[in-house]
Amino acid sequence: MLANRSRDTGPELALRSILHGRGYRYRVNYRPLRDKRNSADIVFTKAKVAVFVDGCYWHGCPEHYWPAKTNVHYWAPKIAANKERDELFNEALAERGWTVVRAWEHEAPEDVAERVALALRRL
Questions:
Q1: Of the chain's two ends, which shows fewer C-beta atoms within 10 Å, N or C?
Q2: Record's family (predicted)?
Q3: C-alpha angle with apex 24: 90 to 119, nearest 5 degrees?
Q4: The model's pTM
């Protein structure tokens, strides 16, 4: 598990490159809520927009998640807990006025960048 990156993944870098090219400036791997340990992949602090690029396996993508064949008693609850944590953090952010953009690693970065731009324009 040491080889699994928590930041600067390929999909995240591709998205950041597109956003930066469009002139957006943001914080990377930033904690939008100081009293929570969770951090977002990309954060627009003034606009209060938090962007997450979720890995299909780690966050239980409905299209690409495949259950583990070994150590099932560990991985099934682990993935379920990740999904629950994501939901709770989304709710905490929304309660404090943040807009959350969640993307899967398999999504085209151009499409995700468009969703982020749309969220920023709405504000």
A1: N
A2: Belongs to the Vsr family.
A3: 40
A4: 0.92
Question: What is the spatial distance between Cα 59 and Cα 103, in angstroms, rounded to a whole number?
Answer: 11
Residues 55, 87, 120: CA angle, nearest 5 degrees: 75
> What Å distances lie between residue 123 and 46, 85, 119, CA to CA?
10, 26, 7
Q: Tell me which H or E stretch contains 99.
A: strand 99-104
Report pLDDT digits (tens) over 92-105.
999 999 999 999 99
3-state secondary structure at position 90: helix
Axis-axis angle for helices 10-21, 109-122 (nearest 10)? 50
3-state SS track over 19-88: HHHCCCCCEEEECCCCCCCCCEEEEECCCCEEEEEECCCCCCCCCCCCCCCCCHHHHHHHHHHHHHHHHH
For residue 103, the SS3 value is strand
